[in-house]
Design brief:
By secondary structure, this protein is mainly alpha-helical. It has one domain: Flagellar protein FliS (Four Helix Bundle (Hemerythrin (Met), subunit A)), CATH 1.20.120.340. The chain contains 7 helices and no strands. Helix 2 packs antiparallel against helix 3 and helix 4 packs antiparallel against helix 5.
């Protein structure tokens, strides 16, 4: 077995073991980390002018965002917050498509920044465990809604083309705006 095959096998087993042992909160964190890693790989592919690698990494990021993060939303229980997140995930997907088509590093950086902000917010609402560690800081649902609203408003302020504007207006109209 060559070195690269061994490394890939190790990483696959490590990820599978992590998924099997993870609670739902950790699984969402793993999705955020996977999407961020895919974006880093896409940017590296873009810089190396490796079109297949860039396309595969962006496709992986889109898959994680759509079939992982967005699909995990419970809009019945999550209400406005879940709808805002779904719209934000749609926006991220559209920006990743733009990044792929136009080799737009700025779009990749924007999506990475949004994902990092959401990941940070998700980490801050970690459910308490039965360990004896000090209580972690928590945020209220209202604070979380406020954070997501701010992200959506920030996204709206970066719109530069009529197509982007129409995409966000459509996403916003799906849940009645902020």
């Amino acid at each position: 077995m060559n070195t690269m095959t061994a490394i890939k096998t190790y990483n696959k087993v490590r990820v599978e073991s992590g998924v099997a042992a993870a609670d739902p909160h950790q699984l969402i964190l793993m999705l955020f980390q996977g999407a961020l890693l895919a974006i880093v790989n896409a940017k590296n592919g873009m810089l190396r002018k490796d079109i297949p690698a860039k396309g595969a990494a962006i496709s992986q990021a889109i898959l994680i965002i759509d079939d992982g993060l967005k699909a995990s939303l419970n809009k019945d229980v999550g209400g406005e917050l879940a709808h805002n997140l779904a719209a934000l995930y749609d926006y991220m997907t559209n920006r990743l498509l733009t990044a792929n088509l136009k080799n737009d590093e700025i779009a990749l950086d924007e999506v990475a920044r949004l994902l990092k902000d959401l990941k940070g917010a998700w980490e801050s609402i970690r459910p308490e465990t039965t360990s004896t560690s000090p209580a972690s800081p928590t945020i209220t649902r209202q604070q979380a809604v406020s954070t997501v609203k701010t992200q959506v408003v920030n996204v709206q302020s970066t719109i530069s083309t009529p197509l982007q504007s129409a995409t966000v207006r459509h996403a916003m109209s799906a849940y009645g705006g902020i």
